[in-house]
Fold Aminotransferase.
Amino acid sequence: EPGFAGRTERLASPATIAMAVRARALRAQGHQVLSLALGEPDFATPPAVIEAAHRAALDGQTKYPPVDGTPALKAAIARKFARENGLTYAPAELMVSNGGKQVIFNAFMATIDAGDEIVIPAPYWVSYPLAARLFGGVPVFADCREEDGFRLSAAALEAAITPRTRWVVLNFPSNPTGAVMTLADLEAIADVLRRHPRIWILSDEIYEHLVFDGARHHSIAAVAPDLTSRVLTLNGVSKSYAMTGWRVGYAGGPERLIRMMTRVQGNATSGVCSISQAAAAAALDGPAELIAEMRDTYARRRTMVVEALRAIPGVTCAMPQGAFYAYPGIAACLGRTSRGGRMLTTDEDFALALLDEQHVACVHGSAFGKGPYLRLSCATDDETLREACARIAAFVDGLV
Ligand code: PLP
């Protein structure tokens, strides 16, 4: 039969999606499955944003848009970066893609040759190593320790850099740990990066608005303006505005990198859906209170979940300062057997047995490069979260 390209061997399906598929199969069998596996806001897109999309479609904004984004959205993005991040980008330094995911794909395709190393703080969002490998890149992980609040230390970064390093990825607030870097943390990271002038820096700031307890998000390009000629600042409307399905992400960066990324995208998908771009512009220019409301809800849920998890003997849990995940440690649960007779050797065994026996879907930490932990998404309603924690407690209680 016709075969596949060699590179597809490196094209694994993310564990997050695999877990969601398995949960769906159990649900189809009639089980009431609680899904904490996906990082998808449970809020609806703000009505004013939907109305802007409707108006754009009726106004005839239904033709091919420019590959790098509509002038109106790029202007809104420039205002957003200036207002919220203290960053100044000219139109030629901005581009719009089909989600933040395509920003990463464009950037890596434009820059990575076989054997190039991509430094990724671990635990990490799965798409960075998967995209890097697709282009022949070699992920190198910089460990973020729980004792450090899962923040990246300058020492861990320095140790991961070699003459082959092409990119350093920063993702704070972090998916999956919710870690937020302080200003001092970022200054120390900038000092390391200054010593390595041939490295691109990807700062994925998609969770920037979801920071709690007075924590503040800082953009590396604003903390270290002398690095901006190498920094690609990634953001998008998926998480901040509950717009995952609209597929709008964007990036600011040096003109020559943006130009090459635009060329990549022009050969793949062309410009992002014109109607979605009009919606995203309305979201970025819209009232900030909507974001604050969602943020406060996530903060409250996070506290509820972390406290419920901490009450379970054998489970530990750091209090995340951002994003919408909890990342409990389950080391004390391993080496034991579940009520259903499953031996739990790894956190993946735990997650699979929890799904099969208690119908709670989450993702094991080792899928994000650091076990034994679980990642629970708190982007769902209180009742589901409460019930999920009760089922996890029951599952752990049944271990012998
Ligand atoms: N970056 C991080 C850390 C994410 O968790 C996600 C989504 O899960 C994205 C980027 C990309 O989101 P989108 O492609 O919807 O913009």
In short: The chain has a mean pLDDT of 96. The chain has two domains: 6-44+290-397, 47-285. The CA atoms of residues 312 and 393 lie 6 Å apart. Residues 39, 99-101, 125, 171, 175, 204, 206, 236, 238, 244, 249 surround pyridoxal-5'-phosphate (CB under 6 Å).
